[in-house]
Amino acid sequence: MLTEISRRAAVDFADTTAYLTEAGWGVTYSELDRAADEAAEGLRRHGVGEGDAVALLLPSVVDYVVLYLAAERLGAVTAGINPKLRAREIGGCIDVLDPALVIATADLAGAVDTDRYPTEIVRLGTDAASVAAEFRVAGAEPASPPPDDDDRAVCICFTSGSTGQPKGAWYTNRQLRAIAELDTGGAWGGGGHGISPTQFAHVGFMTKLPWLLASGRTTHLLDRWSAGPVLRLIAEHRMPAVTGVAPQLALMVRHPLIHELDFSAVQAVVVGGAASPPALVRECRERFGAGYSIRYSSTESGGIGLGTALDADDEEALHTIGRPRPGAEASIRDANGDPVPDGEIGELWLRSECVMSGYWNDPETTAETLVDGWLRTGDLARVDDAGCYRLAGRLKEMFIRGGYNVYPMEVESVLVAHPAIAEVAIVPRPDEVMGEIGVAVVVVAEGHDAPSLAELREFAAEELAAYKLPEAIRFTDALPRNSSDKVDRLVLAAEET
Predict the structure, then answer these.
(1) Predicted structure pTM score
(2) The domain containing residue 32 runs over which residues?
């Protein structure tokens, strides 16, 4: 599917810039397609073939797009690994993936066990001719991909389990086609300009590249997301939509440029990652003069789930995650998997043609998560009288900080090794910018002084991504326990609201 769309875009939008870098250079649609053919030949010469997994341990650059397209032309499966992860976390993803080839930058390759996994280092391109240069074979014949089988795996998007064990949600041509249809209605063209707000390893890029190519738009790439440059691009190119996760929007509306630039072209603010604070919804609607749609989804759902309407009243817009989007279904279930009456709290289940095929190399967890075509989200919710869904917490303890999932048990397993800690629990605290942050509730070990927050963050930084580190600390003589002698996280979390 990707090859078909890429080749058509190379004709229909031949001289349009597909990706434009912050340094001022870019690649056109025709150049992107040709680079993918040349890189496909290079991958083939590295032994990559149909069904093989290829790991891209790269930042969100043009080289990433070229190599993703190239791997698909061979029938290989591409897995993006977030470069923000620490070495231990990267290693866990690669172990789950068991790739035929890892492609990494020199500064990230140290996280790869190169004795076990073939690894190639790339120097990131500085112009259209040098992207993915280590793999491109000049004059290579256009690749002939395997038949466009609906059930052929195309990409893998990593998430994490409640214990921090990486899980790779994998997607086929069928799901990518369904996602493109639901997101665009099958429309071709449209052009314009846009920004990719998430890492390319994220489901928001991996599963949506087909419709991004089909749109014929110019996507602006930033070396690092920052509110000021993003606001300038939105205003300069008169973008009709502002997209991102809630913390990014919070930084935008707090930036001085929000009062100086012209955002009259903006027609919609579309925000994923998690529910948005009501105050943020109000402020964004005022500052951008446009409707605000909360999009509830997950890595496993293919980025498709529920959403609030752009013209929703305050009750829906501020306090709910809306209703199922076209093509998606939602249901609230009890512990036995049976539907509960409206108004009662249960686990939110989703069903659509976009839901993942399963977890890569993990049939047991797949069977627990996918039940009769339904995806168990692990989130608790209820349906209100208007038919809108309202989140009510999480079946497990995961929380979302800045659009990224944080699993307390994973963080705790690292912090508890600190000599000054006898016990520790990580609980979420609401935050106006990040949505939620982690609070370390600590029982100090006998004979030790209480550790500072900075000390704990430094201690854990070698093993955990920055977004997982606690951002507040409080001390207690003992962690509360429930009747099963487990830490009562509800009690701890209640103290943070």
Answers:
(1) 0.87
(2) 1-187
